[in-house]
Design goal:
This protein is α/β, with parallel strands linked by helices. It is about 35% helix and about 20% strand. This is RNA methyltransferase. It comes from Amycolatopsis panacis.
């Protein structure tokens, strides 16, 4: 089994780092924190406060080297020597979702979206719309970190996130599972409000600058457009995601 197929800790937890986000997670009764990892160099009142909060919440605290904490957090400038793994109950591997007896029918696939604010807002919108899953690859998309959590207003913790290695890997798996892949293009001839969708469909949301990547574009079933009668060339990707998500709600397909 390859690395991308193995169950990764990133398929189970959202990792938050920094003193304030960790304390907030520990204090939130609606969240289940798996563990706190504290750098062995962390001392003083701040470290003591985190240890007290973890003890109160019944969460184990592990010590690790400062370097290890930086690697795990993925942000050496802002981790402040502490991180927490928060259980994300609806997060799982895409492969597991596709293997279900009744796989999810309507999905979003993020392809090259690197701005945490956009990823967070998309997760919030898709969750509000009741979509069955948002595919967030581990490569090529903003990491699911405190900035994404903040942009989602905390919804990222319970969003239906599906993980995989890359957007191309996801597209190939989805095609093999019988999904149609639909991507947005301002010059497409078919409106997102009129396109006929198969039982299983995934909408690809491309990056802020480059749009849908070439390796995913070649697998797209059909390109669709969001009609814009006004004098605007394109929408922010999170706004486009909202249009798509609530069009599926309108159709009763979310």
């Amino acid at each position: 089994m390859g690395d991308d197929e193995a169950v990764s800790p990133k398929d189970r937890f959202l990792t938050v780092y920094g003193r304030k986000p960790v304390l907030e997670a520990l204090a939130d009764a609606d969240l289940r924190v798996d563990k706190v990892i504290l750098a062995d160099t962390a001392r003083g009142p701040a470290a003591a406060e985190i240890q007290r909060a973890a003890k109160t919440a019944g969460v184990p605290v592990q010590r690790a080297s400062a370097h290890r904490v930086k690697v795990l957090a993925g942000n050496g400038k802002q981790d402040q020597g502490v991180l927490a793994d928060v259980v994300a109950p609806r997060m799982r591997a895409l492969a597991a979702a596709l293997a279900d007896r009744r796989p999810p029918e309507r999905l979003l696939l993020l392809d090259g979206i690197t701005t945490p604010a956009n990823v967070g807002m998309i997760l919030r919108t898709a969750t509000a719309a009741g979509l069955a899953g948002v595919i967030v690859p581990r490569r090529g998309v903003a990491a699911l970190d405190p900035m994404v959590v903040k942009a989602s207003a905390g919804i990222a913790f319970r969003a239906p996130v599906l993980r995989c290695g890359s957007a191309r890997e996801a597209a190939e798996s989805l095609m093999e599972a019988g999904y149609g892949l639909y991507a947005l293009d301002a010059s497409a001839g078919v409106s997102v409000f009129e396109v006929d969708l198969p039982k299983r469909a995934v909408f690809v949301l491309g990056g802020e600058t480059a749009g849908v990547s070439a390796e995913v574009a070649e697998l797209v079933t059909e390109w669709v457009t969001i009609p814009m009668p006004g004098d605007v060339e394109s929408l922010n990707v999170s706004a486009a995601a909202a249009v798509v998500s609530f069009e599926l709600v309108r159709r009763g397909l979310s």
